[in-house]
Amino acid sequence: MSILVGKKAPDFTAPAVLADGQIVDSFNLAEAIKGKYAIVFFYPLDFTFVCPSEIIAMSHRMEKFREMGVEVVGVSIDSHFTHNAWRNTPVEDGGIGPVEYTLAGDMSHAIAQAYGIESDGGDSYYPAGVAMRASFVIDQKGVVRSQIVNDEPIGRNMDELVRIVDALQFFEENGQVCPAGWNKGDKGMVNTPEGVASYLSESSKNL
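Predicted structure:
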């Protein structure tokens, strides 16, 4: 698995289903996220188990992400036609419904490989060849600032992705770093010895 934090997010062009349900043959990541923050999140397969809960949870947070200027793109090795079929399957029947962000098809596995999260089977619970449960937070310059990968049985907390974007934007706006457990509205920390001492003297008991 590759570590992409601090590096440019690999660009890709792939067939996709857009948020409005339009099917396109050539969705380009760099074009879609230019000048925006972005989350690219991978999941193993359509019509499976943990995956729909994550995909729906992400869709429920899209109003918040839009307010923050974040473009969201989901990716699996399924085709764009399978994505579309899953979107058109009601939630009560195991589908995901009309989720409010793009789902890209990685049938060649090239995107998962570029991001270093294609499973080789190994000792994880993933079957070989699928994309791992991985999330990448990307800044407005196209640089990866956070990378989280869970094993197959462990669903992600999409509120943590909101928190990470909040923290990134806070740092960019204020120049202060975000200590453990930081949430929007909390104090930041000045990244000097004096700043650390000041923060810990006030807040260490609450960590």
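Summary: The chain is about 30% helix and 20% strand.
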